[in-house]
Design the sequence.
């Protein structure tokens, strides 16, 4: 679904770099929407540089989720019973070279559940912002997500795939994971589910 909310062009006030692990600036607009601005580039961020798809550096979905979670922590929106819900990845953020950069803008709306959106545009450009991802900060979620594989789902007919072979198969499909993303040991695949 399209979001018609516009990204304001207000000059943001300084915010501590620790907010998202990078240099960030923050501002509030008259409608109490919080705005955080920063730059993203494979040359500055290992977690982007180590994630390539079809020869391009691509901001991984997991990185966007972590970014949203950190923004929630900085703004005091997350707690023990808070989770990200209705996450949508709408447009990829891709870089042709390690030196390329984008301006990024995260907006957080004041109404609960708080909507958080990520927008980008080429660095130094005056073009319209592209909405890349969105989510909601919502509460009252169960400890274990529904649909999580149980031991009963992995039976004796399951087969074990060495993680290194799995990463090789990803590379055959032009999805390259750097060392920081190679956290799997083995993957066990059964007829109804898989665990790693």
Sequence:
């Amino acid at each position: 679904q399209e979001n018609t909310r516009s990204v304001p062009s207000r000059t943001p006030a300084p915010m501590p770099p620790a907010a998202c692990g990078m240099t960030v600036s923050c501002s509030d607009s008259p409608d109490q929407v919080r705005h955080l601005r920063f730059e993203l580039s494979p040359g500055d961020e290992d977690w982007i540089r180590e994630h390539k798809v079809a020869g391009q550096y691509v901001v991984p979905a997991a990185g966007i989720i972590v970014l949203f979670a950190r923004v929630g922590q900085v703004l005091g929106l997350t707690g023990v019973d808070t989770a990200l819900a209705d996450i949508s990845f709408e447009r990829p953020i891709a870089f042709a070279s390690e030196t390329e950069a984008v301006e990024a803008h995260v907006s957080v709306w004041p109404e609960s559940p708080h909507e958080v959106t990520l927008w980008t545009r080429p660095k130094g450009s005056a073009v319209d912002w592209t909405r890349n991802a969105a989510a909601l900060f919502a509460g009252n979620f169960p400890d274990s997500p529904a649909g999580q594989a149980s031991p009963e789902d992995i039976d004796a007919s399951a087969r074990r795939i060495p993680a290194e072979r799995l990463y090789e198969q990803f590379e055959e499909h032009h999805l390259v994971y750097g060392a920081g993303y190679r956290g799997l040991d083995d993957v066990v695949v059964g007829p109804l589910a898989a665990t790693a």
Confidence is low (pLDDT under 50) at residues 1-21, 141-146. Residues 61-74 form the longest helix (14 residues).
